[in-house]
Amino acid sequence: MSQSNMFILMVVIPLILSQSTRGKDCVCELQNSDPAFPENKLKNVEFTTSKCIGNITSEKMTEIDRLVLGLQHRIWQLLDNVSMLEKEDNGNLYAAVSLRIIELELAEIQDLLDKLNRTTNNYQLLSGQTAAELQDMEETMVELEKFDHTQVMVKERENQRVKRDLDRCKDVINSTTPASTLSPGHCGLGRMVNVSGPRTYSLTVYGTSYTFGAWGRDAKPAPGDENKYWLVVLSSSNMTDLDRLVLGLQQRIKQLEENVIMLEKEDDRNLYGAVSLRIIELESAEIQDLLDKLNRTTQNYQHLSVQTAAQLEDMKDTMVELEKFDKMQVIKKYRESHIKKNLEQCKEELKATAAPPTVPSGRCGLGRMVSVAGPRIYSLTVYSTSYTYGAWGRDAKPAPGDENKYWLVVLSSSNVYGNFIRQYSTLSTLLLGIGSTDTYISNSNPTTNTIQGPNMVMYGNALYYNCYYTYSVCQFNLTTRSVSTVALTKDAGYNNKFPFAHLGATYTYTDMDFATDESGVYVIYAITSNFGNVMISKVETSNPPVLNQTWSTSLHKRTVTNTFMVCGVLYATRYLDKETEEIFYSYDTKTKEERYDLRIHIKKMQTNIQFLNYDPRDHLLYVYSDAYILTYELIFQ
Question: Buried b / exposed e across 147-178, counting CB within 10 Å, b at 16+?
């Protein structure tokens, strides 16, 4: 193949690909593959730098100097007193007075030494902490510099340094007179014009172990030493020089006290006065020598602290520079790209999720349930927050004249058992807590045929619920005040065997759930032979009630928080978080189609939903949630 043909292929193929891609309306997004810039580390270094600079104050740097100076004054005062007493020697009186004065002076000196020791320890601790923080900050700086793969930051700082040096150079040229020219007879050097080099650039035998030191040659060497060089490094041992000197000073003071006490006991009049003074003079001279050494070490240590503070200030400036660096908006673009990616992923998931089941128009005429709106009502009952478990709603098939009635049941015993139904003539009277009528199933609670668990429904002026301590369905007729029952299969769960639950909680005694829809009453439960999965049984509302057709599902009951029926379709909810419940499952009793991919959210006002039921008359969900009553509207298309 010729080169010209190859060129044509290289041009044409991308055009074809571009056209096909454009036809699919594809959005190509450039994303930054590098990790985000570690801003938190940058802020930590800046904070540590400011903290270190704040710790090294001028008062702390001069505190040791003040204590050493005070110590020197006290020793000089001691020497003056001894000399004065020596000149005024009067035998026994001298011995007594001189010892007392010496003891007082020594006590004051010891007090100053204790203060000096405490201050030195604190200063050494501060220096050790500062050194450790410096090391951590240096490592973080190295890490931040390694992050800059594109070398933008390095080049930017280099440009700024060059610009700063250039400006400085211009200022010096403009404002500084030329360096003085030395006459040939002076040194024969002429005028100094610049500094070139470096001529030598190397590590010492210590490598990078010691960052502080000095070196050079003797400016006036002895004969034969003209080529010698000297080197001094500041090692960590400098950090303990103060400790050693202070300790030595304490020992000399202690020795001085012991000598005075011993001489006092061996008092022999004139001989005592002469010998004791000489010993005191020798001890004082040694103490003075130690003080001189301590003073020199303190000055060196103070100079080192000043250098450290300067380094910290430079590092702080570098931190500020790093924060201002992001001119290319790299971090911002990366975050924006990440958000866009999550949005696209969310859109793809929505496209991939099938729509909820559509009920045939001939069955109920509702269409497809698409969302849940509300809450429309959100209120406490007359019981306030006393009872967190309960139920409420309307009769799904009311008697004539009872269409506007509402019923309320609270589990007044242990949040598990109830024994009466409270009815209100309107919603307003229920919300106000006035004009209620109570109907008792039994005077005792709990007892046979009273209510167990919060799941119940009202249908045809009868309440359907789980009978106390049995696997039976109870039907309580409010007109006759009689109870009829029908038993589930013997392996049906009851007494908290298969309750509603989620990972964070279990809704106790919710083994049986009851639901109403356009066709009647259902009981939802689980049985052992179906591995704890949900069963649905139609309850015929005759007296006594009878179980009709039963459907078996693959939905495990403990993964569900509530169920309800709409037009022959079972819907199940699950707990997402404190603010959201999700309708995620459906089972069509007509087609036996089972779905786990519904994503219809319910906005909660409280954390838990203990009761939930659908009213076919107004298409509302009636909810009892942590002592609050709510209603939600089902939206169909």
Answer: ebeeeebeebbeeeeeeeeeeeeeeeeeeeee
User: 3-class secondary structure for 154-198?
Assistant: HHHHHHHHHHHHHHHHHHHHHHCCCCCECCCCCCCCCECCCCCCC
Residue with tokens 């044509």: 8
CA contacts within 13 A on the Cβ side of 326:
13
- Alpha-carbon distance of 550 to 562, in angstroms, equals 19
Is residue 75 within 8 A of residue 109, CB to CB? The reply is yes
Q: What is the pLDDT of residue 388?
A: 95
CA-based nearest residue to 419, from 385, 397, 387, 380:
387
CB 363 within 8 A of CB 568: yes
Report how far apart, in Å, the C-alpha atoms of 208 and of each of 143, 233, 380, 616 are: 19, 11, 73, 83
| Burial call 229-253: b when 16+ CB within 10 Å, e when fewer | eeeeebeeeebebbeebbebbbebb
Beta carbons of 590 and 571 less than 8 angstroms apart: no
Integer Cα distance of 158 and 152 in angstroms: 10
Contact 381, 433 (CB under 8 A): yes
Q: Which residue has the tokens 């440009």?
A: 159
**Which of 495, 491, 560, 486 lies closest to 523 in space, CA to CA?**
486
Could you report the per-residue pLDDT of 384-432, keeping only the tens digit for each?
999 999 999 999 999 999 999 999 999 999 999 999 999 999 999 999 9
Query: Are the C-beta atoms of 277 and 285 separated by less than 8 Å?
Result: no
Sequence-distant (6+) residues with CB within 8 A of 72 are: 288, 291, 295
Can you tell me the distance from the alpha carbon of 529 to that of 491, in angstroms, rounded to the nearest whole number?
7
113-172: per-residue pLDDT in tens?
778 778 777 777 777 777 777 777 777 777 766 665 555 566 666 777 777 777 766 665
Whole-angstrom distance, CA of residue 403 vs CA of residue 426: 9
- How far is Cα 557 from Cα 624, in angstroms, rounded to an integer? 20
The CA-based angle 529-534-540, given to 5 degrees, is 100
Cα(302)–Cα(590) distance, integer angstroms: 90
Asked if residues 143 and 153 have their Cβ atoms less than 8 Å apart, the reply is: no
Residue 340 pLDDT: 80
Q: Model confidence over 207-239: pLDDT tens digits?
A: 776 777 899 998 999 988 888 888 887 665 444
Whether the bond into 198 is cis, omega within 30 of 0: yes
Pairwise CA distance, residues 484 & 27, whole Å: 65
SS3 497: coil
Name the pLDDT band for 203 (thresholds 50, 70, 90). confident
How many CB atoms sit inside 10 A of residue 318's CB?
17
Structural element, H or E, at residue 423: strand 420-424
Torsion on CA atoms 117, 122, 125, 126, rounded to nearest 10: -140
- φ/ψ of 480, rounded to 5, equals -90, -15
Residues 420 and 441 sit within 8 Å (Cβ to Cβ): yes
